[in-house]
Amino acid sequence: MTNLTVSNNLVVGLEYTLRLDDGEVIDASDSNAPLEYLHGHGQLIPGLERELHGMSVGDKKTVTVAPEDGYGEYDEDAFEAVPLSAFPDGIELSPGLELHMRDSATGHIIQAFVAEVTDDTVILDLNHPLAGEALTFDVKIASLRKATQEELEHGHVHSEGGHHH
C-alpha cells in the first residue's frame, strides 16, 4: 500500500497550536480530536494549506503564515455604520460581539464584529480578528484518508455517525 501524503481531496487530521508574534497561544486542536478538513477545498487559510501539502502521517513542522496568506491585511476602511433599527429587538449589541450577516448583493455570509454602539448606529468591523497578524502554527499530521464520494460532492468532511450541516 502506498503511503499517503497530504494532497487535494484527502481528509487530513491535523494537530495544531496557533501562536501570534508575541508567543501568545490563541488556538489549539483538542489533543484527543485533531481538526479534520478536506485538503484543497479552501477550508484552511491558504498559507497553511500550501505548507501542509506533501506531508505524511506523523510529520511535524512549524509554519509562519504572513497576513496576506492568512486573514489578510488589516483594512482601516472595512467598517460600516448600520442603523440600530436594522437589528432585531432584544439583541444585546456590545463591542466585540460577533455577527453573521448575509450580503444582500451576493448572498454570502459575512462575519462582522461590533466595534461601537451609539444611540442610533452600530459600527461594524468587517476585518477578521486576525487580519494583519503573522500566524505561527506548530502542526502534526495525525491522519490521512481518502475522502468519500459524498464528502467530495459536499466539499467538506463528514464526521463519524453521519452528515451534519
Question: How would you sum up this structure, described in words?
Answer:
By secondary structure, the protein is mainly β. 8% of the residues lie in helices and 36% in strands. It has two domains: 10-71 and 131-154, Roll (Chitinase A, domain 3); 79-125, Thrombin, subunit H (Beta Barrel), CATH 2.40.10. It is built from two helices and nine strands.
CATH class of the largest domain: Alpha Beta
Taking pLDDT < 50 over at least 5 consecutive residues as the criterion, the unreliable ranges are: 161-165
Written as H for each helix and E for each strand, in order along the chain, the element string is: EEEHEEEEEEH
The share of residues in extended strands comes to 35-45%
How many individual β-strands? 9
Derived structural class: mainly beta
Number of helices: 2
CATH architecture of the largest domain: Roll
Tell me the radius of gyration: 19 Å
Number of domains: 2
**What is the makeup of the main sheet?**
5 strands, antiparallel
Helix content: under 10%
Average pLDDT = 91
End-to-end distance, in Å? 33 Å
Q: Do you know the CATH topology of the largest domain?
A: Chitinase A, domain 3
Shape designation: globular
